[in-house]
Amino acid sequence: MRSSRNQAWCTRMKAAPTDPQTGSFIARYRARPLSWGEFLRLASLGAAAVLAPLLYSAWLYRSNLLRYGSVAAERWSTPWLALSLAALALFALLVVIRLAALRRSVEVFQKGLRLNLGKRSFLPWAQLAGVSTEVRAAGGLAAGEKLRYRVRLHPTTGRAIPLEEHTEKLPELLSQIKAHLYPRLLPALQAEFQQGRWLHFGEIAISSQGLRLGADHRRRLELSWAEVQSMQVQGGQLTIAYTPPGKGVGASQPEQSNHHTALRQRRLETGEIPNIELLLQLIQQEVTP
C-alpha cells in the first residue's frame, strides 16, 4: 500500500511542470516503514524496561506491607515505581522519534537534492562537495548478514548532513548522488593533481609527491608513493600498508632486506573519508604505473 502510494506520488511529480530552481524530478526515497521484526523488538524492549521495575516495585510493597506498614513499604517500592515511569517516558520518546522518522525523505532532482530531514531544504549539486559512506555487516563479517550504512553529505559550507539509515533503497540513492556528483568533481581534481596541488579527502591528502595521513600536524604521517605498498577497503575501513619513511626506495641494502618485515599499516574509517571512490580512482589513474 505504501509503495503504491509512493509510486503514484512520483508519477504525479514527473508529470508536473518543471521547477526552474530544481530541474526535472528523478526519484524520491522515503524512510523505510516499521517492519514487524523491528516493531516486536521495540515492543519487547519497552515491555521489559517498564514491567521489570514495576513488578519488582509491586512485590516490594506487598511483601513489606504487613511486616513494616504502608509507610515503609511505599518508601522502599517508590524508587522502583519511579524507575518504571522513567522507562515508560523514554520508551514513548523512542516511539515518537521513530514515527517522526517515517515522514523524512530525500528527493533527487536534475539540479540537486531536496532534503526533508527534520526541516525542508534544497541542496544544489554545485553546493555539494562530497559524500562519505561506511558499510558494515550488521552482525560482523558472517556471510548473509544484513549491511548497515552510515552516510553523510558534505556541503561546500556548513556541517555534514547525515542521511537516515532507515531510508528505503539507500544504496540506490547513493548511486544516484554519486552519478550526479562524481563526474562534476573528477575533472577539476585531476587537473589540480597534475598541477602538483594537495587534494584533501578528510584525514587523507594526496598530491603527485605522495600522501599525508592525519589532520593533526603533530601526528601527521607523510609518505612518498614509493613507500605506499597497498590500499584496500574492507569492513568499513581503508587499510594503507606502507614502509616507514626512509626504508623504501633509496634505502641502504640492509634496510631493503628487511623491507617486508618493516611493513606497517594505518587504518581509517571510510565514513570519515569523503569521495573515497574518487580518491582511489585518482591514485589508480595518476600514480599506479
List the helices and strands and how they pair.
Blueprint: H1 2-15, E1 25-30, H2 36-68, H3 70-101, E2 105-109, E3 112-116, E4 120-124, E5 128-137, E6 147-155, E7 161-163, H4 170-194, E8 199-201, E9 204-206, E10 210-213, E11 221-224, E12 228-234, E13 237-242, H5 253-257, E14 264-269, H6 276-286
Antiparallel strand pairs: 1-2, 2-3, 3-4, 5-6, 6-7, 8-9, 9-10, 10-11, 12-13, 13-14
Helix pairs in contact: 2-3
Structure characteristics:
alpha+beta; PH-domain like; 3 domains; 4-stranded antiparallel sheet; 6 helices; elongated
Question: Can I get a quick summary?
Answer:
With 289 residues, this protein is an alpha+beta fold.
Report on the architecture of this protein:
It contains six helices and 14 strands. With 289 residues, the protein is α+β, with helices and mostly antiparallel strands. It folds into three domains: 117 residues, PH-domain like (Roll), CATH 2.30.29; 66 residues; 91 residues, PH-domain like (Roll). Strand 9 and strand 10 form a beta hairpin.
CATH class of the largest domain: Mainly Beta
The largest sheet is: 4 strands, antiparallel
Which strand order do you get reading across the main beta sheet?
1-2-3-4
Number of strands: 14
Report low-confidence residues grouped into runs of 5 or more.
Answer: 249-259
CATH topology of the largest domain, anyone?
PH-domain like
State the share of residues found in helices, binned by percent. 40-55%
- Overall shape: it is elongated
**Tally of helical segments:** 6
**Radius of gyration over all CA atoms, rounded:** 27 Å
Would you tell me the structural class of the helices and strands?
Answer: alpha+beta
What is the annotated CATH architecture of the largest domain? Roll
Strand content: 25-35%
* Average predicted local confidence, pLDDT: 84
